[in-house]
Amino acid sequence: MTMRPNVNFQGRLQRGLTLIEMMVAMVLALLLTAAVLQVYLLNKTTFTAQQQSGIVQESGNFALEYLTRDARMAGLAGCSSRRSGTQPLPVHNYLNSTAYPFDLIGHGISGFESTGTGVGATYNITATNPAPGGGWTPALPTGANALDGKALPGSDVLVVSGISPDDIPLVAPFTSGSQIFVDDVRDITNGEILVVTNCQQAEVFQATNVVSASNNIVGSSAGSYTPGNAENIASTGPEGPFTEGTRVSRLRSYAYYVGRGTDGTPSLYRASLRGGAMEDQELVPGVDSMQIVYGVDGNEDYIVDDYRDASAVTDWQQVRAIRVSLLMRSPEEFLDGMDTATYNLAGTTINPVDDRRQRRVFSSTIALRNRLL
User: Is the pLDDT of residue 9 over 80?
Assistant: First the structure.
């Protein structure tokens, strides 16, 4: 019998990939990577847009909330706010100053119109982060509490004044010489500006000695406080003595303006009266412009006849409401194209710098509650 050698018919095993297979795999990998990258970039763009839009929305609402709260209380003087007509409350100002911020005592609101931004005008913002300067009508306050040199051009300035709602009642003997008597001095401290008022009159002075043991507050011309009192306060007001129902409160004064923020961008600022000086606080960044018009009631029927810019208001006692418009911008440039639009702010056309930031106008009409009673 003839023996045949064993023949292995098992096919040769494939080892590795062919060049064509490798090229196909690389192309598929590149396509998959490109798809993942595109999804990532799309998600990042969407996230950035939502984030920046959210910042603009939140900042605009926050700014209007601050402005609304303080403007509504302009001119608050306790029950004396209910005096009829536009006649100012009789006020004896004992302070050794009638300059800003103490010039608003008795009428509660004032405004300053930025040059070139009146109703019907077009204002061109020429720098992304402008420097302080420019002109206003009337001229901005100078001196120790200056707004001049802080405010940015192209934005109006608003100043409101009134008294704190957390007042303290006077108790017998109410007044004596240069002091008043209260049921509790609470947290009032030396140097604070105070308003004593009833339904008929008021007097303003700086506390020079707060005595918690006997709950009396002295207002004398002695001491080294700023601005200080020009004379000792009297035991009677402009229209008679202060008796039952008289209350004492802190004087509040706020100035709103657009200034240069800590990061160099235009920001909404609020200067607040602390003792005898104004302290500045940055509230909201990203404010390209703030425009304000004032609702004037010329015939004392408590209905606004028309809205005017600050340069056209001749009697601030006739102002019943204000209309505030803010042009807010996003912190980052993220739009695909340039923002070349113009924006209407309370009748003024604002033309910002062309860039890729998102912008939005926030507006509110605010009634001055103490002028509508």
Answer: no
